[in-house]
Specification:
This protein has one helix and 14 strands; from the N terminus they run αββββββββββββββ. The protein has two domains: 61 residues, SH3 type barrels (Roll); 60 residues, SH3 Domains (SH3 type barrels, Roll). The strands form four sheets. A five-stranded antiparallel β-sheet has the order 6-5-4-1-7, with no helix packed on it. It has a five-stranded antiparallel β-sheet with strand order 13-12-11-8-14, with no helix packed on it. A two-stranded antiparallel ribbon has the order 2-3. It is mainly β.
Amino acid sequence: MRHLSAVPILGLIAALPAAALDYRSVVEPALLYDAPSQQGKPLYAIARGTPVETVVMLDAWVKVRDAKGELAWIEKRQLSEKRTLMVRTERAQVRAQPEEAAALVFEAERDVLLDFVEAGPTGWVKVRHRDGQQGYVKALQVWGL
């Protein structure tokens, strides 16, 4: 009997839409707060262009997670749909093609911001540096996907 009672619950779970991760970029240097209000306690400042993962949207405020896993609130107006990625390894190799043996276009050090251009083949993403150089980086070498 226990086996049969679990079937409707599993069916309900399967019918729920999958939650997709949503990332945004910070438009301008901003303060992040412990509550969705400027009367909240300021926690830290975040730099322009930094990618953040949106967790909760509440009117004019968004609860976000940064690359270190910290949760905080930021005003929605300070976020952009434009996607940036942050290098999370000591050095990320950006290659001409999405393959390990492809020519190296440039290397980016930890915490460098790269513009997201498009998803590449599995495990790769096409990025652009602010100086215009672009290529493919391994997805595991960046944060914000």
